[in-house]
Amino acid sequence: MRKLLLILPLLIASPGWAAESWGLPGEEAASFDGKVVDVQCVLTKDCPKDCGAGRRQLGLLKKDGALILAMKNADPFAGATRDLLPFCGKSITVDGLFTSNEGVRAFALQRVKPPGGEWIAANGFVRDWAKAHKLKPDSPQAEEWFRHDQTVAGRIKAEGKLGLGPGQ
Amino acid sequence: MSAISSKRWMVVLAGLALAVVAIPPSRGAGHRVKLTGEVIDSWCQTTGIMVALGTAHHQCAIWCAVGGIPVGLRTSDGTLYTILRVDKDKANVANPRLLRLQTHEVSVEGDLIERDGLRYLLIDQVMDDHGIINQTHADSGIQPFGE
């Protein structure tokens, strides 16, 4: 049961669960406004077009100057870049969770809402992965994308599940 | 004080004032670091779930890195750094170089930028790659599903 509770945050993908508890350490539900930014751009002034076109970690720059890295989205084992990229440079409202552990505070994105728009569940990774593989997002393969992804399969074939060599 | 020396002082003071204005705020400025630690998945490490270290978590760390979760570096004192760049590649979502380094113990050199509670690392050189040395699977199996 404890293990199930621990992995639940990575498995939940339902929009209905947005801004609700994942049972994380130091968890804190949060809703705030911010401008979608390329984190590396903000920190180093190296700013490619379109916030890096999906190849850069994205975050939210609040009006008070606080930079929030969006570390996770609502898909299993996936980040939030695809959820934020359509709003690069624009101000949006987000729902999610902060979690604190060992002195580090991280943000998991659950929903985004553009000005005047509707809430959108932060399931962009699986949505795009399914589309690229001509599948429905709720298909069994897409829901367990990590077991069917070619890049993952290539790494695991080369170095094994433990990383100690093929077959190990 | 003569009129000429007064003018000189005014010029000097004006120059100093301009210099103060021209210095950018220190917020976000980085400094050089050399660090040794394990390449890890930032989310699992931050939340403290699924062991999040070593061989037991290697497959999960690959899943998360391919899924676009930031890859990090954890030093032996438990400090977590979020990697934004490695070598000359400024991409940091599913970066192939970071995928190959996942779970390895590495020594790196680069710039550290601290901002709003997170430590961001821009690696410009991986000086040593010791491979995977943290064998956690004997105690923890394969996380999170045991297979």
Strand content of the residues of chain B, in percent?
Answer: 25-35%
Strand tally of chain B is 5
Largest sheet of chain B: 5 strands, mixed, barrel
Largest beta sheet: strand ordering of chain B: 1-2-3-5-4
Strand fraction of chain A: 25-35%
The tally of domains of chain B stands at 1
Helical content of chain B stands at 25-40%
Number of helices of chain A: 6
Mean residue pLDDT of chain B = 84
Strand order, sheet with most strands of chain A:
1-2-3-5-4
Any idea how many domains of chain A? 2
**Number of DSSP helices of chain B?**
5
Shape of chain A: globular
Roughly what percent helix of chain A? 25-40%
Strand tally of chain A: 6
Structural class of chain B: alpha+beta
Distance between the termini of chain A: 28 Å
**How big is the Rg of chain B?**
22 Å
What name does the CATH topology of the largest domain in chain A carry?
Answer: OB fold (Dihydrolipoamide Acetyltransferase, E2P)
Main structural class of chain A: alpha+beta
3D architecture notes:
Chain A: Keywords: Signal. Residues 1-6 and 8-17 of chain A have low confidence and may be disordered. The relative contact order of chain A is 0.16. Chain A contains 6 helices and 6 strands. A 5-stranded mixed beta barrel of chain A has the order 1-2-3-5-4. Chain A has 2 domains: 19-122, OB fold (Dihydrolipoamide Acetyltransferase, E2P), CATH 2.40.50; 123-161, no CATH class. The longest helix of chain A has 10 residues, at 2-11. Chain A has helices at 2-11, 39-44, 81-84, 124-132, 140-143, 150-159; strands at residues 28-38, 58-61, 67-72, 91-101, 104-113, 120-121. Chain B has 147 residues and is an alpha+beta fold. Chain B has one domain (31-140). In chain B, 31% of the residues lie in helices and 31% in strands. Chain B contains 5 helices and 5 strands, in the order H-E-H-H-E-E-H-E-E-H. Chain B has helices spanning 3-22, 42-47, 58-66, 96-101, 137-140, and strands at 31-41, 71-75, 80-86, 105-115, 118-129. Chain B is globular and about 40 Å long. The termini of chain B are far apart. The chains are: A alpha+beta (168), B alpha+beta (147). At the A-B interface, helix 1, helix 2, strand 3, strand 5 and helix 6 of A face helix 2, helix 3, strand 3 and strand 5 of B.
